[in-house]
Design brief:
six-stranded mixed sheet, 9 strands, 29% helix, globular
Length: 242
């Protein structure tokens, strides 16, 4: 038989992130004032995002939530949690500026590099999720969240309902999502991440204390416990050791 003329299949490239780099402008970093006096921020920030799932780890006060909130502001998401659409609606409903509209503090010093640029996504803050759920009920859009009010579900159910029914395309910035999730629901959440990552349409930036979430295969883990933000192996985290 003649040799096959079929070209060998090229290995499929792994999913690529939309947001590729987060840096601070040196001239805007003043290590004598907050939040630049946080240990991990004093020398400036330069984060290269090479994968679609990145976890930020560190002790309380290390700057995880501060960093994610600043990135969310640069993405124009609602500073209390939500998407660009929620930010726009909130601005229309208030004559005064919303908290964080001026991009003061860390957000003003950040620059984001994209390939390609996307505007879809969501910022989740566990501590202010109730406010977001109330907003959803007020505008009667909970049909997008499984057809049931988020306020009429348990905390864990409403979190998973958001993940399953709302997360599709975009960058999803999640601040300690495990706060409302049992260990079993954390595993369900990891399944959602895996399915969205495989779709090549989603990127996740997640701060967490959960060793279950940190075990997500192939994720990048960035520690804020040192003098700079640097990558760390799962087994080297305090969360794993404890």
């Amino acid at each position: 038989m003649p040799p096959s003329t079929r070209k060998p299949l090229e290995p499929r490239q792994p999913p690529q992130p939309f947001l590729r780099r987060v840096i601070t402008l040196p001239e805007l970093v003043d290590p004598t004032r907050y939040p630049f006096n946080i240990r991990a921020f004093r020398g400036g920030i330069d984060i290269e995002l090479r994968k679609c799932v990145t976890f930020f780890v560190g002790e309380n006060g290390s700057g995880k939530s501060t960093l994610l909130e600043a990135i969310a502001k640069k993405c124009k998401f609602h500073p209390e949690g939500g998407s660009r659409d929620h930010q726009r609606r909130a601005r229309e409903a208030h004559e005064e500026d919303l908290p964080g509209d001026d991009e003061s503090g860390l957000a003003s010093a950040l620059r984001l590099s994209w390939l390609p640029k996307v505007t879809d996504g969501f910022f989740l803050r566990a501590e202010s999720f109730y406010n977001f759920a109330t907003y959803v009920d007020e505008v009667s859009t909970f049909q997008r969240y499984g057809g049931k009010s988020l306020l009429k579900q348990s905390h864990g159910e409403s979190f998973l309902s958001l993940f399953v029914h709302h997360f599709e395309l975009g960058v999803f910035i999640l601040d300690e999502p495990e706060a409302a999730l049992s260990p079993q629901r954390q595993l369900s959440f990891l399944k959602v991440i895996r399915e969205l990552e495989a779709s090549r349409q989603a990127q996740f930036l997640i701060s967490t204390h959960s060793p279950i979430l940190l075990a997500y295969p192939g994720a990048t883990l960035l520690s804020l416990d040192g003098d700079r933000i640097e990558e760390v192996a799962y087994t080297e985290t305090d969360h794993y050791r404890v």
